[in-house]
Amino acid sequence: MKKELNLKSVQTQKYIQAWLAAMIRAGGQTTTDQHAQARIAVCEVCQHYSQVQPIPGLKMPGCLICGCPSLTKAHMKTYFSIGKMGLKVSECPHPHGNKWQAVDEIFSNN
Ligand code: SF4
Q1: Considering the chain, what percentage of its residues have pLDDT values greater than 70?
Q2: What are phi and psi of 13, to 5 degrees?
Q3: Pocket-testing residue among 92, 101, 103, ligand 1, by greatest number of atoms within 8 A of Cβ
Q4: Closest C-alpha residue for ligand 1 atom 2
Q5: Does 16 reside within a domain?
Q6: 21 in a structural domain
Q7: What are phi and psi of 54, to 5 degrees?
Q8: Region at 57 (left for phi over 0; alpha for psi -120 to 50; beta for the rest)
């Protein structure tokens, strides 16, 4: 039987809040909640959407291509990339093209 993820657990909520706070401190810009929910709705019907493990022992829904939890990356317009050592636009890495593009265009003025 598939184990349900407890997204309201203290550990999960602390991880999400700490990650978002770190990205904002690093200069990242957030989306509105409505924008993030629209992105997550796109992910929820994608074949690459499953469980990711951002830190050992913590599983969350997310993208198997980039490894990012949807409850973090979808809430950012830009985020700090350690690999690039700078701010990066938060976008869908789908091999057939950015699946968030249409949603991002709708929310581009927010
Ligand atoms: S490939 Fe894009 S749409 Fe699919 S889960 Fe990853 S971020 Fe979401």
Answers
A1: 95
A2: -65, -40
A3: 92
A4: 92
A5: no
A6: no
A7: -65, -30
A8: left
Q: How many domains does the chain have?
A: 1
Residue 4 lies in a domain: no
CA-nearest residue for atom 7, ligand 1, is 92
pTM, two decimal places: 0.89
Centroid of ligand 1 to alpha carbon of 99 (angstroms): 7
Q: Is residue 3 part of a domain?
A: no
Residue numbers of the domain that contains 93: 31-106
pLDDT in tens, 9-68: 888 999 999 999 999 999 999 999 999 999 999 999 999 999 999 999 899 999 999 999
How close is the Cα of 27 to the center of ligand 1, in Å?
24
**Tokens 């989306």 — which residue?**
31
